[in-house]
Amino acid sequence: MKNSLLTILLITFLVSGIVAQDLPTHSLTLRAAWINYQAPNRDNKKLFTDLNNAVEIGYTRQLNNWFSVNLPVRIGAANFPRLDTSDNVTGYSKKLNYSGIDLLAKANLLASKRISPYVYLGIGGALEDWDKFYAQAPVGLGLDFKLNEYISLNAQTDYRLAFKEGYDNWQHAAGIRACLCGLEKDMDKDGISDKKDLCPDVFGLKQFEGCPDTDNDGISDNNDKCPTLAGVAENMGCPADSDKDGVYDVDDMCPTVAGTVKGCPDRDRDGVADADDKCPDVAGLATLGGCPDRDRDGLADASDKCPDQAGPANTGGCPDKDKDGVSDSDDKCPDVAGPASNNGCPLAVDTDKDGITDDKDKCPNTPGVASNGGCPEIKVEDKKILDVAMRAVQFDPGTATITKSSYGNLDEVVSVLGRYPEMNLAVEGHTDNQGDVKMNQSLSDKRAKACVDYLVKKGIASSRLTGTGYGETRPIGDNANAAGRKLNRRTEFVPIWR
Question: What class, spelled out in words, does domain 380-497 have in CATH?
């Protein structure tokens, strides 16, 4: 038995050199036992008297850091004593087969320590020669010495209180406790049980207690601020940052000088590094080399003749409304495109070939005479028809209904329009100031449109006519007397040349 114990201890020490430290949830105990069990037992008060050898194997279920449940089974031999007349042991007549089983509750005195003392108690029994069973209540103390996470050395002593007088005894045992690792749950299949795995859902490494090290920098991902970038421990797993500007040296264009643009200084904070900034002390645009452009016209202020007014490059950044390449300040015709040789004004053009250039022609598309601003000259008799119609066209009082007596005058207006196909006509309605202003406005508008409708019915294209009411806003006579008010109540027919 001594040789067996030495063999167990030797195997234990060899294994301890290649595995890590900790106790498993499930374990198996193998121990050599020494028991002073006899039948009857006269030496039960002596710790180390008349000891018999036994072998014990047991299963342990660790409930938490403090408590576990044990189920040991043992087998061995016991001496059957010879007694004299005074019940003194004079020798032993034979050896008995001895076996036993217990159910124990164990309490650790130091949780999760390398050296862990414990106490235990439970219920069990002894079986003699396979036919006599005696119940016992073991109470004891022991010690676990953890070699690694799989193996512990173990020793314990208990006193077994029998429920039959004369059957109390001592039991001493020593051996090893081994992990039943196949029973440990390991969700990520990394060989580290979930109970001991700091990253139970991610495949990891034993040296990092089950956590991965994605960037292989020697710092586990759960402690690495930059788990995908190899770094250094003093920077919590992130790459070195010599100038402490928040840009890692591997990405820092200026690793020894703190800066905000790829790690380089930017005094004006415009996003352009000082080394590339043509205006390093004034915030500007990257597209302009870091120089400002107040009017946002694409020209840097330093080269912009009008830095506060947007303009194209061909005018030095100054406005050019007609886009003729001449800045408005130098353009004599800023609203009409023209060549710089003519100060921005268009060259003389006479579209209608009437001898009057377009810039002076009120009717540039219709030949006319200078005396009429380039528009066709209306014959005296035709102009008279329009003037007469202004006063002759009448309406029923307070309405927009044209009187029948006015039809002839309107028919003459139709004739004039027929003689001048390039002429349009603006029909304008007017009133005096008698009555409500809004009503006068509405009435004048309706009367002008009534005349337009009449002319359209007579064959004049509606595109040649406009009808507008002006109410009492454009008097030509004095509204203070009847004669003036009569002049103001009128419908004018104003020629407009195309």
Answer: alpha beta
